[in-house]
Write a structure and sequence with these properties.
The structure is a homodimer. Chain A has about 350 residues and is of the alpha/beta class. Chain A folds into two domains: about 150 residues, Jelly Rolls (Sandwich); about 180 residues, Rossmann fold (3-Layer(aba) Sandwich). In chain A, about 30% of the residues lie in helices and about 25% in strands. In chain A, strands 5-4-7-2-9 form a five-stranded antiparallel β-sheet. In chain A, strands 11-10-12-13-14 form a five-stranded parallel β-sheet, sandwiched between helices. The N terminus of chain A is likely disordered. Chains A and B meet through helix 3, strand 5, helix 8 and helix 9 of A and helix 3, strand 5, helix 8 and helix 9 of B.
Chain lengths: ~350, ~350
């Protein structure tokens, strides 16, 4: 008797969870996290419109760093089918961060990690069961797109009988972060661990990711583009790491002045570079970093002296903590480093917003 | 005049740092972190000697997880040339962790991260400048070998005129950690961020890494092998994640009793599985984990009841913190998770050693 009961229970369980799936395809869902509404579906920026941007920057804006899909569903399972441009992967990144995704679910008003989508390492096409065996109560989901590789197709698989409701996340403020690979998210372990993503979840503000790996060289064309971004509450310029001392000296003042001209009242936060952990014993590397940060700080002081208001500076010392452990490769934060960096930036942003009240 | 001085300074700088390198080749250096001295050069265990180990376990023991080279040198630069068995890389790991290396340097009695060696992603042969432009004062170095791929050759490049002195690290105690992929180090961002490596640096104790990806199924052959490990101050059995409830029930008591027979006085710490972040919303996954941990805890209690002494248990709740953010893929800790897990284990180990005084 007991045996039959067990078999019956297994059967019920199987029925409960082994449903057929249906797929929500491109353009049945909406994508958030963009600086502008009208961009190619998986791209951050419409680079045809901003034709003067440097070619490498245009390519990087096709990576969906910081973009995400948010929806409600009463599905018990979420499976993803997706395609990326290439299988390219740097030695300092995980496949999940570069070409995969991660999913959060809201619980008691907080976004809680629910599962990751691991890409196929040999093929541009991947499929993965991100989460399964959930209760069938309706939940809110937040799915982060890959940080480092163009996404060309995505299908979201849910229970055949489940609903799917596009449910845009509503934020209290909008922050635009322009920066290097660190802003884009290397070497976070997964997309949701880039600092703009961490801080979006923590602060309830929208953090738009304009991170550009190996770039963010304070080109004036970026400030020109930023003219068109509407309703911004704060611009963050975290663009020191890949800019030479000369570029910083030549470009910072014109860039900030143009941005100020277009956005007369929006606060601007200039963030110095993290001190690269690899520069701890590398004397020349260390000297270069110090010179870059010093040059950026000098531009900040010159701008203040010149009467630019609502301009702020976050110094680079100890942004990754004091134990030199906060990086994957000596250059890019690991998740420990991103956790510390997020806390430092959050604190500064809170100060700026508090002072405005 | 000023211009000539500048050129002269640049020339001196160039001379100082752009030296030819010489290579310290295999067997000119020694490897630490092994449970036994006489193993194949880059292997953790001599699997010919322990022929009864499961085949997959034998293969995993050829990964040099937790092994390292320690030396003194007055070199200004360290470059590595190395070869791994394959270029295989899981989607949840970085190349640096799996096939690369990281280097620490001692400063004021502490090991400080100095640089990482990024592997060639397309070729089994790699070379990388890990650190350069250092002062030429003599320093102690600690170089972690890859966690996830067999290393078949390594050459350590230093300044042609520099010295190289094998300098074994001396520890206060020896701890042997038997466990799953989490012990082996997935998904640490680099080899030095596995929890046994973190804790070796923090505690001044040697933590021997017997982590076995996808394995550590409490096989009695492991306890048989552990018979021969000498001078152990603590055994840690972190072997729940890949063991089924049935395996835990059938194997834990015989395993611990045999280990106790061979090492009558050595404390043994049984660590429950971390609660997998992916099981937060996955009801069946969650139930499985709870059942595994419960079964392990029951075996612990039965062993205590049966009179086994100096046996300890660390519960799995909150080992990765309470925010569900401590993993890369829902299963393996990221560097944030490893940081938290290390703290929890360190605390428990300190308790055990304190009680013995």
């Amino acid at each position: 008797m007991k045996k039959y009961f067990l078999l019956f229970s297994l059967f019920i369980t199987f029925q409960l969870f082994a449903q057929q799936l249906k797929y929500i395809t491109n353009k049945e869902f909406t994508i958030q996290g963009k600086a502008f509404q009208n961009t190619p579906f998986y791209h951050r920026i419409d680079t045809d419109k901003y034709a003067n941007l440097p070619p490498k920057v245009k390519t990087l804006f096709t990576d969906p760093a910081g973009l995400y899909v948010s929806f409600k569903s009463n599905t018990s399972k979420i499976k993803l089918d997706w395609t990326t441009r290439s299988t390219y992967l740097g030695a300092n990144t995980t496949g999940i961060m570069a070409r995969g995704m991660d999913l959060y679910t809201k619980e008691n008003g907080k976004w809680i990690f629910a599962g990751a989508a691991l890409p196929n390492q040999q093929n541009v096409k991947s499929d993965y069961d991100v989460v399964q065996n959930m209760t069938k109560t309706e939940k809110e989901f937040l799915l982060y797109l890959p940080l480092w590789n163009e996404l060309t197709d995505l299908k979201i698989g849910i229970d055949e009988t489940a609903n799917f409701i596009n449910q845009p996340i509503v934020y209290k403020k909008k922050i635009v972060v322009y920066g290097s690979s660190i802003v884009q998210g290397a070497s976070a372990s997964r997309p949701g661990m880039s600092y703009p993503s961490i801080l979006s979840r923590k602060t309830g503000y929208e953090w738009i990711n304009l991170g550009l790996s190996g770039n963010a060289k304070i080109e004036i064309e970026i400030a020109e583009m930023m003219k068109d971004i509407q309703n911004v509450d704060l611009f963050i310029l975290d663009c020191v790491p890949n800019s030479s001392e000369e570029e910083i000296k030549a470009r910072t003042i014109p860039f900030v002045k143009l941005l100020r001209k277009y956005h007369p009242k929006t606060p601007i936060l200039m963030v110095e570079s993290i001190i690269r952990p690899m520069s701890k014993f590398d004397q020349i590397g260390h000297q270069n970093m110090i010179q870059q940060n010093k040059a950026y700080r000098n531009q900040y002081e010159a701008l203040i002296k010149d009467g630019v208001t609502n301009l702020h500076l976050l110094k680079g010392d100890n942004l990754l903590g004091t134990d030199n452990e906060g990086s994957t490769d000596g250059i890019h934060p690991n998740d420990l480093g991103f956790s510390r960096l997020s806390t430092a930036i959050e604190q500064k942003v809170n100060e700026i917003f508090s002072a405005q009240k």
